[in-house]
Each structure stands twice: as structure tokens, then as C-alpha cells.
Amino acid sequence: MGADPMDSERGGVLADLSTQNAGYLPGIHSYNTYISGMGMKSRERVVRRLREAESRRAVVVDELAQTDALIIGSLSEVQRRCGKPSCHCAERPGHPQAILMSVHDGRRRCQLIRQADLADVRQAVERYRSFQSGLRTLSTLDSKVLALLKELRRLRDEGYE
Ligand SMILES: [Zn+2]
Questions:
Q1: How far does the centroid of ligand 1 lie from the alpha carbon of residue 97, in Å?
Q2: Ligand 1 centroid, distance to 79 Cα (angstroms)
Q3: Domain boundaries, the chain
Q4: Ligand 1 centroid vs 118 CA: distance in angstroms?
């Protein structure tokens, strides 16, 4: 039969198509679809971003909805003097002492933390900090969801002619 020009031509076309499919064609395709149904595409894009925000929100709420104890307060450290005249702390910086600062009934409270409790208290305060951080993230996501819903309302508005 010999070399068939059609075969080689078709092979060439197929090769070109597969090359284009790899990068060029999808871009053109989605661009055309976007132009022909611009309103619907914009709405779908907003809905997709809404769904993304909602699933991130669900993760944040899951993290917040734990029951482990936490301590609303902050830890700091002071230098304490033990009182023994022979101790180095009588002259130079004393013994590090962890302090828990908190507010109860509107009044600031400052408590010394026993060394044996320090790790647990530190973890509980850290849980409080990450709770606060989760609340901030939730608030940001809520604002985003609201903004997206308002954008969707605008995009869905067809008016009346
Ligand atoms: Zn001392």
C-alpha cells in the first residue's frame, strides 16, 4: 500500500489536537462559554466561591466545637525573690515564676502558677488562644459569605423592562 498521505495527515492533525488540548483549547473553550453565558457563569463562579467558604467554615466550626477545658487569660513570667538571704536572688535576678493574668467579674486577677501545673495551664491558655483565632477566622469567613451572597443577589437581578 505504501505511505498513505491521509494517514500521515490525520496523524498530524490528531497530534496537533492533542497538543492543543493540553493547553490552548481548554482556555479558548471556557472563554467562549464565558462570553455566551456571562451572567450564568458569573453566578456559578460566585456560588462555587460560596461553597468553598462554607466548607472552610465547617472546618473552623468543627475546630471550635470542642469540649476540652481552656483558660481565658494570658501567661507571663516574673522574677521572684525567695527571701533566703544566702540565695543568689537576693542580689541578682531571682527565680522565674509563671503568672496567669485573667479577668473575673470585671476585675483583673493575677495568680502564681505552681511549676507542676505549668504545662497544663500553658496548654489550656493555648486552647483559648486558638479558640480566639478560630473566632476571628469565622468572622472573616462570615463577612466573605455575606459579600458573596450580596454579589449573587446583584448578578441574579434581571430587573424588568
Ligand atoms: Zn532565691
A1: 11
A2: 10
A3: 37-156
A4: 19
